[in-house]
Each structure stands twice: as C-alpha cells, then as structure tokens.
Design a protein that fits this description.
Beta-lactamase; 426 residues; 11 helices
C-alpha cells in the first residue's frame, strides 16, 4: 500500500496542470518528438517537480490569476517542464478556438533573440564580421562609423523607424518593408535625429530591421528561410515562423485589454525586430539549444551575453540581441521582453541553473512581465521588487505602494489603461 501511495503521488506531481483565472486546465503531454533535439539530462525527482510547480502556481495565482490573461505560460528546469498553462482563446471576444500548446503568438521583440543569434551564427562561420561597417553589407548606408556590432547592442545612435517614418511623411496607406526602412534612412538621414555612434545605449527597432537585411545579404536566403533552415527545422520548432502576407489566415490576432482588436497597420510587415510567431514549447527548444551549445561556440555565447553599455550605473544592460540584469550579487539574468500591439511576451533564462520562464499573450496583459519574479525560485536573482518592469517601455515602470496600501491589480490597471492606449507600440 505504501508503494502504491508513493506511485500515485509521483504521478500527480508530474502532471502538468495549474490554476489561472480560477480555471483548472490540464495541458496535453509533451511528445517525445517535441524534445528529440534536446540532449538527455537527469530527470528531476517527483519531489522537485512538485516543489517547483507549487511555487510557480502560487505566484501566478496571485498575479496573472487576478487578470484576464489570455495566453501561454511555461516554466522549465533542466529542460524539463515543471509548469505549463494555456488560458483563454485565440479570439477572446467570441471565445472560439482555445489556446493550445500549438498556438503560436507574435513574439514582438523576443524575435530579436533570433535575429541577433542568426547574425552571430554567420559571424561564427566567417561569412561576416560584426566589427565591419554596416555599409560593407548594405550599399548606400550613410553612417560610416556604425558597425554591425553597434546594431546588435543598440549603440548605433539610429532612432526607431516606427517613430520617425510616419512623422516624416511616409504614406501610411503603404506597407513599410525592411528595404523601405533602409532606403528611407539613406534618403532622409540628414533630417533624422541620429545620435553619435557608440556614445550610449538607445534601444531602436531600426537596428534589427537592418540586421535582417544583412542576414539576407550574407546568407543568400530570405530572412524567414534562413531562420527556418538554420534554427526552426533542426530544432523541430514546427509551430514557429516569420510572418508574411501569405500567413494572414493563420496568424493569431491581438487585442486591447478591453477586448477590442488591433488593426493591421503599415508597420506590420517589417521583420527582424519583430514578426516571429512561436509557442512556449518551441521557445523552450530554442532555450535548450542555446543552453547546450547546439549551434554556438562558448566564445560566441559569451559575447552575446556580455553587457556593452556602462555609461550609467545600474543593473540593466544589453548584450548582442539579449537584455540582461547584471546583479550586485554577481548573478546574471538573460532575457528579452516584447510588446507589439496587444502582444506582450517574456522570455527569461537563468543560465546558471538551466531554468527558463516563458509567457506569451495577445490581449495586452502587461502583468505578463511579472513572471520575472519567478526567477527567485531558482536562484538569488533579486527580482521580487513589486513592479511591472518592461524595459522597452520604461515610461510604464512604476513602483507600487506597500502591500497594505496597494490597490487591486484590476483597479490599478483600469485607471492606467487609457494612457497606455496612446502608446501601444514599441
């Protein structure tokens, strides 16, 4: 009888289920083919799985569980899923098509992790040098001192195309392409407020739109085909793709928190800075490939995960396609967040502990960024700071009041939502 009870407890601990929005949902099991590309690691004990699942579930019940979160969450340790949740519908207005493990979400700026690493893959293979001037790869590029590395670490001084093109006369009835971003910069660079290169950090989507063109130039493949051939297919990332107009019928739309849909607009075809669709399970495969040096030499990963901007003291920094917290206790948290229209995404990696936190949503639920606090379950990452921190939108970061005086999440969100609608793009 004792052995039977132990077996039942172990099976319960391994069941991937949790509670979000007071609704219990049990995910489908991970197929062996889904993890075939990942190296074997010793499995966690049932007690470890039970502990992590309980800790993650408690945190999410107190944060996302109080919201209208519509999306996916996955937490893994040593490549093994310890918590997985799919909540809501592809279209939350009509409650059609439940979100499943195969529902791909727009990754927004989490896409930059693929663009950055694709560039570094070409560097590793000797097909480009990241310290070369951009003009070597993009003829006509007007800024002689801007290198590929300065695009990767956001130190080029070039502002966001998604801000200046519309303001400087671009016809918003015409879709912008990556080539348009380059051509506009070439034609209007004297009018664009471009800063001195390598003077400081300035986050800009333009950098990664240009990197996508460099990837195409040096690989001889369209960006979407290069990612599919180099990363998606080898890793079995079957639900991941780069959006083009041909994908219009399968794309997951995005919504305001109120449920109103976002309209497709003139900036929605530019890729490299955004426009990759993926799932939490596919992103775990991406994480594990990086964790286990599947594609990259150690020195390449070290370069990607090094900070390059130290003009101001603080914990926030940026590598080559990755954000990071450089903590005073010596720990380093590698991550990227995203925000485009109603798509909000978080991808946190605790490399020392081989732990991963992924959250994706399509209904503008900004509390997705609270999942960073889960890092403290795996190590001393000092993330439980009671603030909603999306570094790409620092104007939204606000310290909360002490718990005794704190308003409910729903009340606080309602009062701030009108201001956020005006700036609902990165």
């Amino acid at each position: 009888m004792k052995n039977l009870v132990s077996l039942l407890l172990a099976l319960l601990a391994l069941q991937s289920c949790a509670r979000v929005n007071n609704k219990k949902v049990t995910s489908s099991p991970v197929n062996e083919s889904d993890t075939a590309s990942l190296p074997h690691v010793p499995p966690l004990t049932p007690e470890e799985v039970s502990y992590y699942k309980r800790m993650v579930g408690n945190h999410l019940d107190s944060t996302l569980g109080r919201t209208r979160f519509n999306g996916s969450v996955l937490v893994a340790k040593n490549g093994q899923i310890v918590y997985e949740e799919y909540n809501g519908f592809v279209d939350p207005r009509h409650k059609r098509d439940s979100i499943t493990p195969n529902t791909p979400f727009h990754l927004a700026s989490v896409s930059k992790t693929f663009t950055g690493m694709a560039t570094l893959k070409l560097w590793q293979e000797g097909r480009l040098n990241i310290d070369d001037p951009v003009s070597k790869y993009l003829p006509g590029f007007p800024l002689e001192d801007v290198t590929v590395r300065l695009l990767l670490n956001h130190r080029s001084g070039i502002p966001k195309y998604d801000h200046y093109m519309g303001e400087m006369g671009w016809d918003k009835h015409r879709m912008v392409t990556n080539q348009d971003v380059l051509d506009f910069l070439i034609a209007r660079h004297k009018d664009i407020p471009i800063g001195a290169p390598n003077r400081g950090f300035s986050y800009s989507n333009t950098n990664f739109a240009l990197l996508a063109l460099i990837i195409e130039k040096t690989s001889g493949l369209p960006y979407k085909d290069y990612l599919k051939k180099t990363f998606f297919d080898p890793l079995g990332m079957k639900d991941s793709y780069v959006f083009t107009m041909a994908d219009s019928n399968r794309m997951v739309p995005s919504f305001y928190y109120s449920g109103r849909p976002y309209a497709f607009e003139f900036l929605d075809l530019v890729y490299g800075d955004k426009n990759i669709y993926s799932t939490v399970r596919d992103l775990l495969k991406w994480d594990q490939a990086l964790q286990n040096n599947t594609f990259f030499k150690k020195e390449i990963l070290d370069a990607a995960y090094s900070g390059y901007s130290f003009e101001k003291p603080g914990t926030h920094n940026y590598g080559l396609g990755w954000r990071m917290y450089l903590l005073k206790n010596g720990k380093k948290l590698i991550y990227h967040n995203g925000w485009w229209h109603g798509n909000r995404t978080s991808f946190y990696r605790m490399v020392d502990e081989d732990a991963t936190i992924i959250a994706l949503c399509n209904n503008d639920c900004r509390y997705v960024y609270k999942v960073k606090e889960l890092a403290d379950i795996f190590g001393d990452y000092m993330q439980n700071q009671n603030r909603y921190d999306d570094d790409e939108n620092s104007h939204l970061v606000r310290a909360e009041k002490p718990a005794a005086k704190r308003r409910s999440h729903a009340t606080a969100y309602k009062k701030k939502s009108s201001n956020r609608r005006a700036t609902a793009k990165k």
